[in-house]
């Protein structure tokens, strides 16, 4: 049987996990969005550590292996002020529910993200991360 490894493409490094927007709530309870806020949280250890985390923790569903399904699932999620991950959703599916579930699972189990400055004083930040599935 083939050995399986999820592969994260190095060419995606510049676009992986970029902050897209931050949702702020004013004193009246109205929400508004600020694009590309600074500072932003990051995965502990940075992009390289994120790639390593995904490649070490994604488990290829057995049926997807049998069906030779390869591609990437793109997920979005919010990083809260405390670094926790919430509101995970698949924004690009392969139409293969087991891969979508696996992508969401591995993101939900990420360690808390870290803020460079003043942890806990920021509004949630939305990130987009592709989770690649590649047979080898």
Protein topology:
Layout: E1 18-25, E2 31-35, H1 46-57, H2 62-66, E3 71-79, E4 85-92, H3 97-108, E5 125-133
Antiparallel strand pairs: 1-2, 1-5, 3-4, 3-5
Task: Describe the 3D structure.
The protein contains three helices and five strands; from the N terminus they run ββααββαβ. The protein is an alpha+beta fold and 136 residues long. It has a single domain (10-133), classed as TonB (TolA/TonB C-terminal domain). The relative contact order is 0.28. Residues 1-19 have low confidence and may be disordered.
Could you name the key traits of this structure?
single chain, 136 residues, alpha+beta, TolA/TonB C-terminal domain, disordered N terminus, elongated, 21% helix
What do we call the CATH topology?
TolA/TonB C-terminal domain
Which structural category fits the helices and strands?
Answer: alpha+beta
> How many β strands by DSSP?
5
Q: In CATH, what is the class?
A: Alpha Beta
Oligomeric grouping of the chains: single chain
Query: What spatial form do the alpha-carbon principal axes imply?
Result: elongated
Helix and strand sequence: EEHHEEHE
Query: What is the number of domains?
Result: 1
- Number of helices in the DSSP assignment: 3
Corresponding CATH superfamily = TonB
Spans of at least 5 consecutive residues whose pLDDT stays below 50 are: 1-19
Q: How helix-rich are the residues, as a percent range?
A: 10-25%
How would you sum up the major sheet?
5 strands, antiparallel
The N- to C-terminal Cα distance equals 10 Å
């Amino acid at each position: 049987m083939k050995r399986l490894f999820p592969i994260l493409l190095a060419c995606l490094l510049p676009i992986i996990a970029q902050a897209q927007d931050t949702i702020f709530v004013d004193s009246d309870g109205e929400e508004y969005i600020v694009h590309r806020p600074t500072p932003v949280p990051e995965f502990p250890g940075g992009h390289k550590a994120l790639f390593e985390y995904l490649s070490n923790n994604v488990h290829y569903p057995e049926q997807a292996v049998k069906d030779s399904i390869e591609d990437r699932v793109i997920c979005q999620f919010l990083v809260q002020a405390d670094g926790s991950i919430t509101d995970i959703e698949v924004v690009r599916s392969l139409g293969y529910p087991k891969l979508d579930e696996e992508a969401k699972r591995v993101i939900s189990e990420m360690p808390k993200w870290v803020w460079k400055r003043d942890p806990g004083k920021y509004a949630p930040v939305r990130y987009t991360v592709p989770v690649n599935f590649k047979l080898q």
